[in-house]
What we know:
Helix content: 25-40%
Radius of gyration: 22 Å
Amino acid sequence: DQVGITFMYVPHDQGEPMSLSDRIAVMNRGKVEQIDTPAKIYEAPVSSFVAAFIGDTNFFDGEIVSIEGDYCTISCPGFASIKAFNDKSLASIQIERVLRQAGITDSATYFNLNEKRIQRNIEDDRYLRFISMEKHWPNGLTLHLLERRKQANVVYMGVQYVVSADGMVLESSNTLNLDNGCLTVSGLSLRDIRGGAPLVCQDSDQLDAMGQVIEELELQGAGEEFSELNLSSLDSIYLVTVDGYTANIGDLTDLRAKVGTVRAVAQELRRRELSGGVIEATIPTIWFHLLMLA
């Protein structure tokens, strides 16, 4: 039965949340590894920790020998060839493009793979961010990359710039289209903004704040619930929901609790068909309880 109340359950048995929950958060040393439905947690864990945590799991080392569209063929000693879905691949950039960008060819060897050169080549592509590289004797290579995605709109002098969470300018347009699924960020003290380069602000903490808020919205699966983020003051950060509720979350402390509070309060306001005013979530739990008791 549904009672209309959100419960957070901290279990000691992995089987209980798998059978009872709508969403599960798996944590490792205080950091959220994955938030997803039970089916996604079980069938598509984002890390080996999540895969091992939810139950007995056998891990086998293998080597990708070919890639065909959304599937790859893996060679694993003691097994026939395994065909697997590339659910951990880059979302929109093919591996072949990454290898070409990195300058890695079939003639590459353990000795001529230069990390600095590969990093420089990869970061010439504004959509890729180099994290690290590992060489494995005699012919293995692991590249750790992040794919930059369109996550925020920044409007400056009549031009719309679409940027990633870390502030890289991915696209620009003289025609404003803020209804593109990205969060519109305002209040930045911009010094320089150019395509293919990171935003430059007089206050670099603003970019850090933008990245933290966008990351938190993604972790909570709430990216589509908010339309605007104002960073004019890092002591009074404002979020606006897609249906017009404005929330003051104060500074970045307790960000997870504050965003969660805003979402819960906005949901209750919708239920009561109330509009207008500002949701004060600078001290998250107090306002949440006041609203629920009202």
